[in-house]
């Protein structure tokens, strides 16, 4: 049997519905002679006559009836599979797993809500990413996209929307000498005992999150870092919204002078199923615009973005 032609099957199905060569031809936008050719090719392929045609009527043979019974559900299933793949490629169906290394604040919830409204056929899930591994879940395929702290300099990852520029604070213990200062100069961070993220985050990213880090502690999670700060075993940089969220007895958050604001970015695996990820990045940009915050889109903007994270 030669290569199966779907046009032959479509022709047979149209004839089975219409029982008229002229109507089947119009339905398929073909000539009647072409319909006859396709039917003849299909009958040669299956080795039996499927349609009886006289000057008065067209009807299916018993073999044609059996063939139709088996063909129709199979063809409908094939059509459904192709349509589902097309819808998924266009970002209209599927599942989007979003990793977050930041607080899921009102801005982020607006973006998720807008995305789900525009893509009702997409199931959306949210996964928290550890401080010490901002890129691993995306790279391993555990999430489809992620909101992470800049900088991002990973050749296999693509950076979309860059947003949420926030001033920085230094978390210190309640008895720390910095609690009496109105602000900590950035130049003093090298003597502040900064706590840094541990691996497997790349070194450039870890150093960017603790620019004055020397031999101080390294932690895998934000809670580990704040616990050490409260115990007087180090200090830690956080953006102002994170500082407000994690405020607790034993911690004091002091503004830092001389450091640029923090920024977040939306990332995904380069060249792999990016339709939904790009749609989500667009939703983030839209949510930022609605909130009145400054939003920058595109990887080019990331090169000038502040390197210190919002989530610590």
What this model shows, in words?
The protein is of the alpha/beta class and 312 residues long. The protein has three domains: 6-89, Orthogonal Bundle (Arc Repressor Mutant, subunit A); 94-158 and 264-291, Periplasmic binding protein-like II (D-Maltodextrin-Binding Protein, domain 2), CATH 3.40.190; 166-257, 3-Layer(aba) Sandwich (D-Maltodextrin-Binding Protein, domain 2). The chain has eleven helices and 14 strands. The chain has helices at residues 6-18, 21-28, 32-46, 62-89, 106-118, 136-139, 203-209, 222-230, 240-245, 275-291, 299-302, and strands at 51-53, 58-60, 94-100, 122-128, 145-149, 157-166, 168-173, 184-185, 196-197, 218-219, 236-239, 251-257, 262-269, 295-297. The strands form four sheets. It has a six-stranded mixed β-sheet. Strands 8-12-7-11 form a four-stranded mixed β-sheet. The radius of gyration is 30 Å and the shape is rod-shaped. The model is unreliable at 293-312 (pLDDT under 50).
């Amino acid at each position: 049997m030669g290569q199966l032609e779907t046009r032959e099957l479509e022709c047979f199905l149209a004839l089975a519905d219409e029982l008229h060569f002229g109507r089947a031809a119009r339905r398929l936008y073909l000539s009647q002679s072409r319909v006859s050719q396709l039917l003849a090719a299909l009958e040669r392929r299956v080795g039996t006559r499927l349609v009886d045609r006289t000057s008065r009527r067209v009807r299916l043979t018993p073999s044609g009836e059996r063939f139709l019974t088996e063909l129709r559900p199979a063809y409908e299933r094939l059509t459904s599979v192709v349509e589902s793949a097309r819808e998924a490629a266009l970002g209209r169906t599927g599942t989007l797993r979003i990793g977050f290394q930041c607080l899921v604040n009102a801005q982020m919830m607006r973006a998720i809500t807008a995305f789900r409204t525009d893509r009702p056929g997409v199931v959306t899930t949210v996964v928290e990413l550890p401080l010490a591994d901002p890129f691993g879940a995306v790279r391993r395929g555990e999430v489809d996209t992620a909101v992470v702290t800049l900088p991002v300099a990973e050749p296999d990852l693509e950076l979309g929307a860059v947003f949420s520029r926030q001033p920085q604070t230094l978390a210190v213990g309640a008895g720390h000498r910095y609690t009496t200062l109105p602000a900590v100069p950035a130049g003093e961070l090298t003597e502040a005992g900064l706590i840094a993220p541990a691996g497997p985050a790349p070194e450039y990213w870890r150093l960017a999150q603790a620019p004055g880090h020397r031999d101080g502690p390294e932690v895998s999670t934000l809670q580990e870092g704040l616990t050490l700060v409260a115990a007087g075993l180090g200090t830690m940089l956080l953006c102002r919204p994170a500082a407000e969220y994690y405020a607790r007895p034993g911690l004091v958050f002091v503004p830092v002078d001389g450091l640029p604001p923090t920024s977040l970015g939306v990332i995904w695996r380069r060249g792999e199923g990016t339709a939904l990820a790009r749609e989500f990045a667009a939703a983030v940009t839209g949510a930022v615009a609605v909130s009145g915050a400054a939003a920058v889109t595109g990887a080019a903007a990331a090169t000038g973005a502040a390197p210190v994270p919002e989530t610590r």
